[in-house]
Amino acid sequence: MQTFNTSLQGKRALVTGGTKGIGKAIADELAQAGAQVIVTARNHPGEGNTAHHFIAADLTQAADVAQLVNEINTKFDGIDILINNVGGLTAPGGGFSTLTDEHWENELQLNLIAATRLDRTLLPKMLEQKSGVIIHISSVAGKLPLWNLNMAYAVSKAALNSYSKALATETASKGVRVLTVAPGATKTPPMEKFIQDFATASGISLEEGYQQLLNQVGGIPMGRMAAPEEVASLVHFLVSPAAAYLTGTSYAIDGGTLPVV
Ligand SMILES: NC(=O)c1ccc[n+]([C@@H]2O[C@H](COP(=O)([O-])OP(=O)(O)OC[C@H]3O[C@@H](n4cnc5c(N)ncnc54)[C@H](OP(=O)(O)O)[C@@H]3O)[C@@H](O)[C@H]2O)c1
């Protein structure tokens, strides 16, 4: 009989953007489960703020990624688990006319191309060892674009979803699983700043801003945002041996936000 094995003992995991928010929660959770965790971000989180091996890299820069992978291969001889968590909303709201080529390019670099570049450089060793798991952190916005708030971000996450599915099919018979996790509104500093900026720009209170944003996505049936640790629990399960038959699928973790089946 198969046991429900979620131990990550002996696994090497890289969490991009693993110093804050959802990425930090994932890094801590995977380490708790026994993995050796490497985190990367542009800035060191400060002494005492991370228990994991930190490597500085801006993932939108090809030269930084080459250095990062070189250090990983030299010090750890590759990895078993790759969490592509880096991403975010950087373009302004306001619809199509506010979005320049530069906004579109930046959003695609951060939310799509950073992941394709890192996968391309780390996958060969996974394929060699005939095992590995890659997670792409997407967003419910990929299926629920809001024209006035997140058009370019939503499009870049939809592209990430499609890429993740294609890669999963390509590597399924070679021992590498690829999955997508799509959080809804999650209580991280950028989300709180986003709500604050929206409320300030609209001349309303923080609470009214929060309610208006919830209304735009049709409300969150559970009535609250996710905690980063809740997203981390799902990721932990997906990268563990207990999820050995899962690949090519996408998991929304959104308190019921997506209104479609
Ligand atoms: N929070 C939400 O409500 C929510 C909802 C749906 C999906 N998501 C997705 O979840 C992921 C994490 O979001 P979050 O809210 O946890 O973000 P966050 O708190 O801002 O953390 C982002 C992390 O990525 C790093 N980072 C940012 N740009 C980088 C770059 N160019 N190169 C390397 N590292 C970079 C940051 O560190 P440095 O600044 O030091 O580089 C930080 O460690 C993103 O993909 C986001 O789209 C979030």
From TrEMBL:
PROSITE patterns in alphabetical order: ADH_SHORT (PS00061)
Lineage top rank: taxon: Bacteria
InterPro entries: NAD(P)-bd_dom_sf, Sc_DH/Rdtase_CS, SDR, SDR_fam
One of the GO biological process terms: monocarboxylic acid metabolic process
Family: Belongs to the short-chain dehydrogenases/reductases (SDR) family.
PANTHER family: 3-OXOACYL-(ACYL-CARRIER-PROTEIN) REDUCTASE, NADPH-DEPENDENT REDUCTASE BACG
Protein name, entry field: NAD(P)-dependent dehydrogenase, short-chain alcohol dehydrogenase family
Origin species: Filimonas lacunae
